[in-house]
Write a structure and sequence with these properties.
three-stranded parallel β-sheet; four-stranded antiparallel β-sheet; disordered N terminus; alpha/beta; 316 residues
Length: 316
């Protein structure tokens, strides 16, 4: 028996219900690149500009994520105090990002506050400019944040935004439509880890995906298959049953199952070659020797082979 729950009932049961549209890296507007202010203006002017321009608001969140604010950075009255605040913010942001960005451990953030140059584009050609740059220590090169890859910009903007959301909101239902589309498969795994460690303990996370790398292979009971069901009432005629959400994942068509099959195939190969508890041995006979030695050690009160380990013959 199915029960229909109206929106008001859901809102009554969930203290705060938010639906988030994924951030899209379309240049400076949606990335924490830089923000402008006239000398002497108060923090309210910064915040007003941030509300008018999406990228500027993300930059303000970006600084708060680093444990400082635009006002603190802009009102420093000596070079040393300004430099100390910028370096502290840069160090904090680098540490936070590298916790969940495993693709390149050789990057670090730099926050700089300088006077505008007359040749810069409007409105960044006057006043005081706060800029964020990403430095690659391996290649000894730095780039503006907005000129990094689309996946990198999206990933960091996502971390900044949801870090601020968790500071100001209570329990939420987070609805994400195709998160991490521009990310490399490994980075999508980092995003899943962020979901599990930072978001899931406090919030309900629901997201859609077509990517095998965004399917949690270690938590398949949480996966639901969404498909557009069609049937053939008469020869030559097709009709739609509508969109169905199902948990019986093995009873769907092959196209719908493709991301799930891809995720399982990837997980199996990872377990075989680089899994945490896989022991490669030369042949099947070695399994008998190792199991016998392990049993003998246990009988003598010693430590045997952990049951979590799987012995896999490598055929020579």
């Amino acid at each position: 028996m199915h029960q229909r729950i109206c929106r008001s009932e859901v809102e009554a049961r969930v203290p705060t219900l938010h639906v988030f549209v994924p951030l899209r890296p379309d240049g400076r507007r949606n990335s924490p690149g830089h923000v402008r202010s006239q000398e002497g203006e108060a923090e309210s002017a910064f915040c007003t500009a941030g509300r008018d321009q999406g990228g500027e608001q993300v930059f303000i969140d970006f600084l708060e994520y680093a444990g400082t604010s635009l006002k603190e950075v802009a009102t420093a009255n000596t070079y040393e105090s300004l430099n100390a605040r910028c370096e502290a913010a840069s160090s904090h942001i680098t540490a936070q990002l590298l916790e969940y960005w495993t693709q390149n451990p050789n990057i670090e953030f730099e926050i700089r506050v300088t006077k505008a140059e007359a040749g810069d584009p409007v409105p960044f050609n006057e006043g005081i400019i706060a800029r964020a740059r990403v430095k690659n220590n391996l290649h000894k090169l730095s780039l503006p944040f907005s000129e990094r890859s689309a996946g990198f910009v999206w990933f960091f903007s996502f971390l900044v935004k949801f870090a601020q959301v968790q500071k100001t909101a209570g329990k939420l239902i987070l609805l994400l439509d195709e998160p991490g589309l521009t990310l490399h498969g490994k980075a999508q795994g980092d995003l899943l880890r962020y979901f599990d460690e930072k978001l899931a303990p406090r919030h309900q996370v629901i997201y859609t995906t077509h990517s095998p790398f965004m399917v949690p292979a270690n938590n398949l009971p949480a996966v639901r298959i969404v498909e557009d069901r069609i049937f053939q009432p008469k020869p030559g005629q097709w009709a739609s049953e509508g969109t169905k959400v199902r948990d019986d994942t093995l009873a769907t068509d092959r196209d719908t199952l493709f991301p799930l099959q891809g995720a399982l195939g990837y997980e199996i190969t990872q377990t075989l070659f680089v899994g945490k508890h896989t022991l490669l041995i030369e042949g099947p006979g070695d399994i008998l020797y190792l199991e016998s030695w392990s049993s003998a050690l246990v009988r003598r009160g010693r430590t045997g082979l952990d049951r979590r380990w799987t012995m896999c013959p490598a055929a020579g």
